[in-house]
Design goal:
single chain; Alpha-Beta Plaits; about 100 residues
């Protein structure tokens, strides 16, 4: 399994909108839904107010193929959601 980790801090006052977009029913989950190899996404909020996003794919090849095929749409959602974040850090991709 290929796991992608991101850490975020939502902009003050926009936490609910951030959670709606990045949560299991949000824009990102809907975007990935149905993609070959997509296993799910999870959003967790820490006691410090930061968030951890975990995206699970069957393989790195599945993820890479999807990103290549949907690059423009990915960039569009990313740009739209950028207004909701004060901090966005890619923590890495792991094989589980």
């Amino acid at each position: 399994m290929h796991v992608i980790l991101w850490r975020f801090r939502a902009r003050s006052g926009l936490e609910a909108r951030f959670e709606a977009e990045y949560g299991t029913e949000g824009a990102w989950a809907r975007f990935f839904e149905g993609a070959p190899g997509f296993l799910g996404t999870e959003l967790m909020r820490g006691s410090d107010g930061r968030y951890l996003s975990i995206d699970r794919w069957a393989s790195k090849a599945d993820y890479d193929s999807f990103r290549a095929a949907r690059a423009a749409a990915y960039a569009e959602i990313d740009a739209r959601c950028e207004a909701l974040t004060a901090e966005e850090t890619f923590l890495g991709a792991l094989e589980a």
